[in-house]
Known about the structure:
Number of strands: 0
Distance between the termini: 56 Å
Helix content: over 70%
Structural class: mainly alpha
Strand content: under 5%
Largest sheet: none
Amino acid sequence: MDEQNFKASVLQWRNTCLSAANSAKLSYQRALHLTPWEANIHIDTAICLDLICTMEENNSADPIVWELPEKMSLGGLMLEPVNKDFWVTLGSVSSNQALKQHSLIRALQLDTSLSEAWAYLGKIYRQSGHKQLARQAFDRARSIDPSLALPWAGMSAENDHQSRAGAVNESYESCLRAVQILPLPEFQIGLGTIAARSGELMSPQVLMAVRQAVQRAPHYPESHNINGLVSEVRSDFQSAITSYQHAKFALGMMRRSKLDNRYPFVDVSVNLARSLCKAGLATDAVRECEELKTQGLLNVDGLQVYALALWKLGRHDEALSISRNLAENLSNMKQESATGALGFICTLAYNIAGKDSAASVIHTLPGQPSYNRELKFIISALDALQPSKRFQLPHLSTPPRLTSYDVMSEVHSNIALGKAIGGESNNCLGAEGGLSYLKKVLHMYPDCSLVR
């Protein structure tokens, strides 16, 4: 599907939804004309008008101007000023933060056990940056009514931004609970986003949720982007490419400033280039990266994809040049991203120029970085192949306890091989050094068949 067909299909979907909403609005207006004393009709009309305003993206940013959904909600409250549900509705349809908070607090004054009011109040606090108040409000809502989806989704967003161990898994479980209770596209997209961080993209629940989000919210770029990630992790690269292209088309349809769209556009473009590279379309991947480079938007993830695509095309000098640019940005990257990028640089240098080049990359790094599991294996393998240039890395001789058991057994085997190669004499392996080292390692890993 090309861009024009995609836009036409999304516009057709939006017009169908708007037509149904406008039809409902006319019915409510007719009922309101016949029975203006019915407060419920005012509230239902307000909800319908709020839906129309959201779809047309014409909400006013002026806090002084009263929007039509707010006026209709106030009409219902004039008839029933102590109706707690009407106050919650006013808080949900209003775009004025002060009015939203006042309405929800008024609803809680009428009934402190109103879970919807606590949930919406938590959402307001989270958006305004008051995380502790947001957490308390969400906890209160969940304790009153565990079957309400919004507080589960809110707690998921709170946990997702925490760095403590297990926070991402808690976030995933909370968001999954919210999706199971109320499968809204926003919740489903959030589930896919968290699944990408927690390694749960292969989950059938995530697959079903993301595919539903694409069907129910085709105008959201995030739904297509997450769908691309789900397809990519299943090695369905053609579907992933199509999804990323749809995400770019959807971004082009959004009524936001160029600054708002720039960073999502970069992420989607890098994802598209990566899938193109995996699908064997390295030329298209290079073209995608060069477009980002021309606009000055090529980030560190894009540099890795760019270098890999150039290497696959046989443009080795250019690939090494890009990898050097990537190495210059290591100090500005987060630790996890930096170690992953370093492992990529070493692997690329080894495949293009051999072990000497890869070894020189590590030797020229400033300081001692923190190594992840893949990089430990790469360095130990290079250390074994390069006995004349011992890295003497303390992280390898005393590995941290949190490192994977299987990975560290392979690392120690590589170290033993390096000691054997390093002790060679008359073209014969010096096995004594390797055996001595393995005997020491055996005390650390007595059940490891590889070490034995």
